[in-house]
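Researcher: I'm preparing a figure for a lab meeting and need a structural model of a single chain. I don't have an experimental structure, so a prediction will have to do for now. The sequence is pasted below. Please return the structure as C-alpha cells so I can convert it later.
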Amino acid sequence: MLRPHLYQLVSFHFFLLHLLLSFLVTATPQQQHHNPAPHDINAAQRACAELQTQLGGSRIQTPSSPNPEYRNVATGAWNRFNALSEPACVALPLSSGDVQVVMKSIFKYSVKYAVQAGGHSAGAGWGSVDGGIVISFMNMRSVSYDPVRDVVTLQPGIRWGEALQELEPSGVAVLGGRLGNIGTGLLLGGGLSYLGNAHGFSVDALEEADVVLVSGEMVTATATNRYSDLFKALKGGANRFGIVTRYVVRTVHVGRSTEKGFYGGTIYAGTVVVVLVLRLGRTPPGAIVILPSQRDMKTSLLISSPPL
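Model: Understood. Here is the structure written out cell by cell.
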C-alpha cells in the first residue's frame, strides 16, 4: 500500500492528466479510422457467423441485427474516437463460458478484438475496433457481498455507482472510481478512489480474478497460486494479459447512509480548483478532488476540510 503523501502525489498527477485528456477526447475528431484489410474482414465475418451458430443472435450481433445493442456498443464509448468504429460483430456474453467461446473463435481466425466494460477508457482503440469483434460486458453486471470472507465479487459490466448502491445496505464499500458511470476496467489501470488516501489504489484491494486467456482457457489468479505472475501483471497491465470476467475485492466498512453524519468542510468549484491545486503543487491532505464530468470543466469540485 502506498504511503499517504505518495498516493497524494500520484493522485495530483492523475488529476492534471485527466484535465488534459478531457480536452483531447472532447474535441471533434480530425482523423478517420484506418479501414481494415479485406482478409481481416473476411476472417472476422467467418468468426462472427460461427459464434452466432454457437451462442445465438442475441449474444452475437452484427450491423444488420434488429436489436439496438450492436449500435449502442459501437457508438456508446465515452471517447469519441472509439465511437467511430464499425465492428464486424459485437459479443454480449452472459457468463465466463461465453467469453471462452468467443475467445476461441477469435484465436482460431486471428481476428482483431476489443473489450468494453464501462466504455470509459480515454485511449483511442481501447474499447472498440474496426472490422473486428467487440466483447461487451453490458449483460454481466452482478455484485455480491460475502460477510464471512468480507469480500465483494463483481462481474466486469457493473458500474461503480451501481455497485455502491447495491452494497450500501450492508454498510460496506469498494475502492471504486470517483464517478458513478466508470466501469471495472479502472481496477486494471490502478484506480483512484475517494478512499485512496487511507487505503491506496483500487487494485490494492484485489484478492482474486477469473481471467480468460487468449487461447480461451480460463484461470483464477491470486497472489499466492500458480498464476501469481498473472495476478501481478493485471495490476496496471489493463487487458493485455487476458480478459477478467470476475473480480473479488476486499471491502471498506463505511457504514450505512443512516449512520453517516454531515460534511462540515469547504467546497471550491469551477476553475478555482485548477488554480488552487497548481498553487499548492499537490492535492491537499484530506481533500477530495472531483474530476470533470460530462465533458464540462465547470463541474470540477475540490472538497477540503479544513478550508484551504
